[in-house]
Specification:
Number of domains: 1
Strand content: under 5%
Structural class: mainly alpha
Radius of gyration: 19 Å
Number of helices: 17
Distance between the termini: 34 Å
Largest sheet: 2 strands, antiparallel
Number of strands: 2
Shape: globular
Order of helices and strands: HHHHHHHEHHHEHHHHHHH
Strand order of the largest sheet: 1-2
């Protein structure tokens, strides 16, 4: 894609993020940082695209008209679905936005519906409790102390898996990353005796600065940036380029989320928001240093993933 098309795809993703009208200031700031980071990575014009969406100068219609090939239009639609569905709850406003976008991009109804069906199966898979609940207070079943080595291994396995998913070219592979992060937080909480619901997990991610909407836009941005290197090779080879550019972002974020959940539930939920953010940032830096160490395992894992069964993969975990 040209820089103009990349800017248009990001604009559409940002419109999708804001389509339900409830994106927080924290996630707006995260999206702004994504645009700035992409510009530093070599994709120019993206910060201005972000600003243009916020002030109303870049409409969905304008962005859609900049996409001239069927492949670019399909990619834009898939990325918009990824952002809108990231939290696992589709509002009426999001449904209306995606339907309008589908018409603007000329995406046929049947393939769009199938893609959305697969997406919902992936994002709804990770948490087996009441997915409609929005309470931030988890149920304590029976407080217990998990095996530290076992918990470390679990967190690392999830980090490697999400890092591997980022190497794959399929859009659905990207969409499985956030559900797996949520599943990890759920399992860490459960290992300490806490029965969590989707609302609590989503709020914890937002508290530490890894909100699902902001992360989803970030993943779209990394795919756009990865397209620069994609011409050097397809499949895993293109993915390895993306991983180098993004510094193993999915690996690092997943690892940090697992560790911050471990500390939070291990303390009996006695850590305030400021300390949680500090712990997350410290673990994120630590994980970035580990990403290169595990790059071989990440690439090997990517070669074993069956992208036709991503919903099952998310449901069972690593």
């Amino acid at each position: 894609m040209t820089d103009r098309e990349k800017s248009a795809v990001l604009a559409i993703a940002i419109h999708a993020a804001f389509s339900d009208g409830v994106t927080s200031d924290v996630e707006r700031e995260q999206i702004r940082r994504v645009a700035d980071g992409l510009a530093e990575g070599g994709v120019q014009g993206l910060p201005s695209a972000y600003q243009a969406v916020l002030v109303g100068n870049r409409t969905v219609e304008d962005a859609a008209s900049a996409l001239t090939t069927p492949q670019a239009r399909r990619f834009a639609y898939e990325m918009a679905v990824a952002v809108a569905e990231a939290d696992g709850v589709r509002t009426e406003a999001e449904r209306a936005f995606l339907e309008r976008l589908r018409g603007l991009l000329g995406i046929e109804t049947a393939p769009a519906a199938e893609f959305e069906r697969q997406t919902r199966a992936i994002v709804a898979a990770p948490i087996p409790t009441n997915v409609a609940a929005t309470t931030a207070v988890p149920t304590v079943a029976s407080p217990r102390t998990p095996d530290p080595a076992g918990l470390d291994a679990k967190i690392l396995d999830y980090a490697i898996l999400t890092g591997a998913l980022e190497l794959l070219p399929e859009s659905l592979a990207t969409m499985a990353i956030i559900p797996l992060q949520m599943k990890l937080v759920y399992e860490v909480g459960l290992s300490h005796g806490y029965e969590l619901d989707r609302g609590h997990v989503t709020e914890l991610l937002a508290t530490v600065g890894a909100g699902v909407t902001g992360q989803a836009v970030e993943q779209v941005g990394r795919r756009i940036l990865g397209g620069i290197l994609g011409a050097l090779g397809g499949g895993i080879l293109g993915g390895l380029g993306r991983q180098a550019v993004s510094s193993g972002v999915s690996f690092a974020t997943t690892y940090a989320l697992g560790q911050v959940a471990r500390e939070y539930y291990g303390s009996g939920r006695q850590i305030d928001a400021a300390r949680l953010k500090a712990v997350f940032q410290r673990m994120l830096e630590e994980a970035r240093g580990k990403a290169g160490q595990y790059s071989g395992q990440i690439a090997a894992k990517a070669r074993t993933i069956d992208t036709a069964s991503l919903a099952a993969l998310v449901k069972r975990g690593p």
